[in-house]
Design brief:
Helices cover 14% and strands 50% of the residues. By secondary structure, it is mostly beta strands. Strand 2 and strand 3 form a beta hairpin.
C-alpha cells in the first residue's frame, strides 16, 4: 500500500505548476490504521488549509456561482424522478445476469417501468451482495438520451465458483463433559445457468457426519427451488436419571435421504416442504437397560417456514429470526400410528449504543408421549445443566441475554468482543398432561465472548437454580436455531 501511495504522490507532485497550491498537513505520528483519531486528523488538515487562506482566496468563485454549484452538488439525486427504461448488468462472468435482473424485480421492485428510488437502489445492492457471489456490488442510475438506465455493476469473487470453508466447535464444562468437532465444507456454485449449488460437509469429533446436497432454483433468479440431500451421522449421548445423574451412554447412528421443494418469501423468508426416509441404530456403550443394539426406520414429511434478518449469527444486534414447522413420522416399529411433532422458535435483538438485549424462545411438542424428542441443557440452554439432561416429548424454553460491546479485535482477528449475562427458563415433560408452568427450571450465566475469525468464542459460568453449575469454553454457536429440528 505504501509503495503504491508513494508512486501516486510522486506523480501528483511532478504535475504541479507555478499557479497550483499544495496543502500538506502535518501528519507526524499518524499511521494508516489510526481511524479513531479522525477528529484530530481533520483539525490538522483545517489548520494547514487556513494557513494558506490568502492564496486560496484568489481561487474563490463568485458567491452566486458557488451557491449554484453547491446546490447542484448536494441535491438528493442527480437523476430526475423518471421511471426506469432499462436495467443493465455489468461485470458478470459465471453468474447469470438474468438471475440478478429477476431478483431485483421480485425482491426489491426494480424493473423497467418502476420509479426505483435511491432507497431501492441501495436495497438492491445489499440483496445481491448477500448471495455471497460478489466482492463488490453497485446499483446506480443515470440518464442516456433522456432515458433512465439502472446499472448493476458487480465484481465476482476471484476464488469462485468453488468455496472451501473450515469450522470448529468446542464445549467443555470442566467437570467431565467435553465435546469437540471440526467441520470442512465444500460448495460448488453456479453449476448451471439457473444457479445450482452442490454442497458437501464432513464433520469429525464427538459428532461424525458426512452429508451432501444439491440445490436447484427453478429458473434464473426464481424464488422456487428443489433440493436433494443424503446424510449419515453418528454420535454418543448420555441418558440421565433422577437428580440429573448420568446412568447410561449410548451411540446413535442415523442415515437419511431427503427431497425438498420450497419458495423464497420476500427478502428474508423461505417455506419448505420435505419428504424423507431415515434409518436409526442405537448401540449401548455403558447401559443398564439396553442389552443389544436396536434398529428402527421412519418415513417423514416436514413443512417449515422461517424468516431471518439477523445481522450476525453469533452476536446479533439487529433484525429478527422466527420459524415454525411440523413433521409427521411413520416409524417401522409402530406402523399403527403417525407421530406428529411441532416446533416454533424466535430470536429478537434490540440494541442501544453498545448494549444489546437478545430474546430467545423455543417450544416444541410431539404426540408420542414418553419420547425424548426434545432436550435442554448446556450453555445458554439452561446453563449449568448437562447437555441433554432434561428431555421429553414436550419442551418450552426462553432466555434474555444482555451483552455489552467492549471493543473491537485487531484487524484480521475478527469483529468485536463482549461481556454479557443471561437469565433462562425452561423444562421438558414426558407427557402433555404433565406440563406445568410451575415446573419451569431457571438458570443464569455470565460470560465474555469474542466474534473471532474462527467463529464465536465464549468463556462463561452457568448455574441452574436448584441444580448444577458449570464453567464453559465454547467455540461455535451455542444453539443451532432456525432449522426446526426434532
Amino acid at each position: 500500500i505504501n509503495i503504491l501511495t508513494e508512486q501516486n504522490v510522486g506523480i501528483s507532485l511532478a504535475a504541479l505548476g507555478p499557479r497550483d497550491l499544495l496543502i500538506s498537513p502535518d501528519l507526524t505520528g499518524v499511521t494508516f490504521v489510526d481511524f479513531k483519531r479522525g477528529a484530530e486528523i481533520i483539525s490538522r488538515g483545517e489548520a494547514a488549509g487556513r494557513a494558506l487562506a490568502i492564496q486560496l482566496a484568489r481561487l474563490a468563485a463568485p458567491p452566486a456561482a458557488y451557491a449554484a454549484w453547491e446546490a447542484s452538488r448536494t441535491r438528493i439525486s442527480s437523476v430526475p424522478p423518471l421511471s426506469v427504461a432499462e436495467v443493465k448488468v455489468e461485470g458478470t462472468r459465471r453468474v447469470n445476469p438474468q438471475a440478478l435482473l429477476v431478483q431485483l424485480r421480485d425482491r426489491v421492485g426494480i424493473a423497467p417501468g418502476s420509479p426505483a428510488t435511491e432507497e431501492q437502489l441501495a436495497a438492491g445492492a445489499r440483496t445481491l451482495h448477500g448471495s455471497g457471489d460478489f466482492e463488490r456490488v453497485e446499483v446506480r442510475s443515470h440518464l442516456e438520451h433522456g432515458r433512465r438506465i439502472v446499472v448493476v455493476d458487480v465484481q465476482e469473487k476471484p476464488w469462485g465458483p468453488d468455496y472451501l470453508r473450515f469450522g470448529a466447535r468446542a464445549l467443555s464444562d470442566f467437570q467431565g463433559e467435553g465435546r469437540f468437532s471440526l467441520t470442512a465444507q465444500h460448495t460448488h456454485t453456479w453449476m448451471n445457468s439457473w444457479g445450482a449449488e452442490w454442497r458437501t460437509e464432513l464433520q469429525l469429533g464427538d459428532v461424525r457426519r458426512l452429508g451432501t446436497s444439491f440445490f436447484q432454483p427453478l429458473g434464473p433468479g426464481s424464488p422456487w427451488f428443489v433440493e436433494a440431500g443424503i446424510e449419515t451421522a453418528k454420535s454418543d449421548f448420555d441418558v440421565f436419571g433422577n437428580g440429573l445423574r448420568r446412568t447410561d451412554r449410548l451411540t446413535q447412528s442415523a442415515t437419511g435421504v431427503t427431497a425438498t421443494g420450497g419458495v423464497r418469501l420476500g427478502r428474508s423468508g423461505a417455506a419448505r416442504f420435505a419428504l424423507g426416509h431415515e434409518r436409526y441404530s442405537t448401540r449401548p456403550l455403558v447401559c443398564s437397560t439396553l442389552d443389544a443394539p436396536s434398529h428402527d426406520r421412519a418415513d417423514f414429511a416436514q413443512v417449515f417456514m422461517t424468516f431471518d434478518t439477523l445481522d450476525d449469527a453469533g452476536f446479533p444486534r439487529n433484525g429478527y429470526l422466527w420459524g415454525a414447522g411440523t413433521t409427521t413420522y411413520k416409524y417401522a416399529s409402530d406402523k399403527s400410528a403417525l407421530v406428529q411433532a411441532y416446533v416454533a422458535e424466535g430470536i429478537f435483538p434490540a440494541t442501544w449504543d453498545r448494549w444489546t438485549l437478545l430474546g430467545l424462545a423455543r417450544a416444541g411438542r410431539t404426540q408420542r408421549d414418553g419420547s425424548a424428542g426434545f432436550s435442554l441443557g448446556g450453555f445458554l440452554n439452561l446453563s449449568g445443566t448437562p447437555v441433554g439432561a432434561v428431555a421429553g416429548s414436550q419442551v418450552a424454553s426462553a432466555a434474555v441475554l444482555a451483552y455489552y460491546r467492549l471493543g473491537d479485535l485487531p484487524r484480521g482477528f475478527g469483529g468485536a468482543y463482549y461481556a454479557g449475562a443471561s437469565l433462562e427458563v425452561g423444562n421438558a415433560w414426558t407427557r402433555r398432561a404433565d406440563v406445568r408452568l410451575g415446573d419451569l427450571r431457571t438458570a443464569a450465566s455470565v460470560y465474555v465472548g469474542l466474534d473471532s475469525i474462527v467463529g464465536p468464542l465464549y468463556l462463561g459460568y452457568g448455574h441452574t437454580f436448584g441444580g448444577g453449575s458449570a464453567f464453559y469454553l465454547f467455540l461455535g454457536r451455542p444453539a443451532n436455531r432456525g432449522r426446526g429440528d426434532y
